[in-house]
């Protein structure tokens, strides 16, 4: 169990410390991206909620399934 724990934790730590350096170097660009991304994600969540509340999501899903290639439907239902 100890070896499993170390094997699971070490890659996570490497990614965490490596990404911290990368993020600190690009913090201004990421702040601008977050400033635009938060309202966009909020609007997207409101839209998805409205679609689910009205039942329109089922109509969109039906349309998508009707227009998907057969191989893609087989792939998504096999998983």
Describe this structure in words.
This protein has 79 residues and is mainly alpha-helical. It has one domain (2-78). It contains 4 helices and no strands. The longest helix has 28 residues, at 27-54. It is flat, with a radius of gyration of 21 Å. The two termini are 30 Å apart. 0% of the residues are buried.
Task: Briefly characterize the structure.
With 79 residues, the chain is mainly alpha-helical.
Secondary structure blueprint with pairings:
Layout lengths: L1 H24 L1 H28 L1 H12 L2 H9 L1
Query: Would you identify the regions where 5 or more consecutive residues have pLDDT less than 50?
Result: none
Fraction in helix = over 70%
Basic shape:
flat
Report the end-to-end length measured between terminal Cα atoms.
30 Å
Element-level helix/strand string: HHHH
Nearest-integer average pLDDT:
90
Strand content: under 5%
Radius of gyration: 21 Å
Record field, number of beta strands: 0
Number of domains: 1
**Biggest sheet, in brief?**
none
Secondary-structure-based class equals mainly alpha
Number of helices: 4
